[in-house]
Amino acid sequence: MQLGLVGLGRMGGNMRDRLRAAGHEVVGYDHHPEVSDVSSLSELVEKLTESPRVVWVMVPAHVTESTIDEVAALLSEGDIVIDGGNSRFSDDQPRAERLGARGIGYLDVGVSGGVWGKQNGYALMVGGEKADVDKCMPLFEALKPAGEFGFAHAGKHGAGHYAKMVHNGIEYGLMHAYAEGFELLQAAEMVEDVPAVFKSWREGSVVKSWLLDLLDRALDEDPTLAGIKGYAEDTGEGRWTVDEAIRLAVPLHVISASLFARFESRQDDSPAMKAVAALRNQFGGHAVKKG
């Protein structure tokens, strides 16, 4: 099957390689000419001769809308646009309606797998019409891991990105649980080999996971993580997950706390804890450390 792929960064470039290895013809475009197969989006579309033409967009969220509009202007009725980036789910239905008015199909696809997807396959969560999903199934089959798992037609437009948002919220919570365990083990007087403990959990334990494997890998490289600053960004999905929890009155204790912990990691000296220290000093005469 033919595919136009826009955005050949860490995810997109590896997806192109995996699809080609499965026998698909992929024409890739990126604003970095050294990795691009063509010099423009119009050239990309011209090289797609099969019907329907399918163009998969894998670009940062802030340029997704403009990129999709530019691609759609080059397509015809019956063609399909796929957004595989980390767009907000609420953008998908309006986008589908706008493209649908011109007869162009639209699918939103949550993609998980990171830099390991080329080797292991990608978990795909798809939103959109079943007819469009069916047309693109050869691509999804090539990208997903072998076997019965790794793909879901999650529902209507927006469902794919919504599922990916929740996936990333869960990821926040899982990572923070491992992180807190790491800190407690490091603080314990009797534990002498923290990396060995994490390694022991990789088989036979109910907390075994791919994230645990990756933490073990990081500890192999730096057993105390001394070379890494304790600063963690968030890319938006965690915030959106908490927003949805508030909207739907769903208690998200762990995910919310893990998101707030990331905010705290960016503070050199917490203003909130300054206030706590000042209050303890005022009501109890407790000592404070001067800045």
Automatic annotation (TrEMBL):
InterPro entries per record: 6-PGluconate_DH-like_C_sf, 6DGDH_YqeC, 6PGD_dom2, 6PGDH_C, 6PGDH_NADP-bd, NAD(P)-bd_dom_sf, Pgluconate_DH
GO biological processes: D-gluconate metabolic process; pentose-phosphate shunt
SMART domains, per database record: 6PGD
Pfam families in the cross-refs: 6PGD, NAD_binding_2
GO molecular function: NADP binding; phosphogluconate dehydrogenase (decarboxylating) activity
Keyword hit for Oxidoreductase: yes
Keyword Oxidoreductase belongs to the record: yes
Sequence intervals crossing the membrane: none
Sorted UniProt keywords: Gluconate utilization, Oxidoreductase
All residue ranges annotated as the 6-phosphogluconate dehydrogenase C-terminal domain in the record: 160-287
Family membership noted in the UniProt record: Belongs to the 6-phosphogluconate dehydrogenase family.
Protein name: 6-phosphogluconate dehydrogenase
